[in-house]
Input
Amino acid sequence: MLRSGAVNVIRAMMGGLRPVIRARRAIFGPRRPTWTLELETVAEVLRRSANLSTVLPLQIQRRVIDPPRPVTKPMREVDMKPVDAGGVSAEWFSQPASDSTRVILYLHGGGYSTGSINSHRDFLARLCIASGMRVLAADYRLAPEHPFPAQLEDSHRVYRWLIEELGIHPEHIVIGGESAGAGLTLSTLVSLRDAGLPLPAGGVLVSGWFDLDSRSTSMQFNSHFDFVTRIGIRTMAKRFAPRSEHSNPLVSPVHADMRGLPALLIQVGAAETLLDDNLRVAEAARSAGVEVKLEVWPDMIHAWHVFAPMLEEGRRAIARIGEFVKERTALADPAGLDAKRL
Output
């Protein structure tokens, strides 16, 4: 799945496609009701790039997604500091005014086999600014070199490091991620509960890949708009886990028992091929008594947040995440938390 790390590549490709799309729109109108010329051009570039990427060797895919990074205004406004988080490579994103007692643990997307902190720097910086707290981004191990459960082991290590080494209250942590990172976020919450560990204040699931098989209706009907394809899903699923593991609720958390999980914010685009999987997770969580805030954004494509430098909708969606994590972590009273620890 193409990520924000390729924003500069996308911009270069957009220049050639924009006149063609402008002419097409003049005759047929926008492909989706609310699509601007900018969004329609971004979507078209992503679809073409995704189709090409499925035939490229994995190492080339990773280099395409992680080219030299243009420094954006949000990136200039935050401090970025690498850290060893319980044996897992990670990076802090913070500002002088960031609340040091509250943390967003972020798990990036990329189909479990591509993507990195580097490919998400602009997004992570924006998330830090919007939330007013520190963001800890984990560079968990990637498949196929490190298949399941390596990613889950890494997310556990980082979470425990925050609590046991830094003394961050679980109620002051929110775990989040987009795409495969959202799937890993949900799997992490389920496995923390099953292990009897204290749960964080909430979870943020953006454009989640929750079902490795992804055979939903939206996978077919939204394939004309979105850049996540069934072929791409199958390729990444093979790297991550054998077919015999696809129904494992920690591999495909759409199958998980969600009782007892913290509140969830689920954001998904109405034009996404993964739309139905996100709706299934929202319904299952609500049926299990979990507080769910489901936001289906009209006409948005997969993980539109990471294209925030070009899309106003991405900037607004990140602002909504900031509101959610502030709300969830504010519910915990520091004095009461200290008393519970004594």
In short: The longest strand covers residues 99-107.
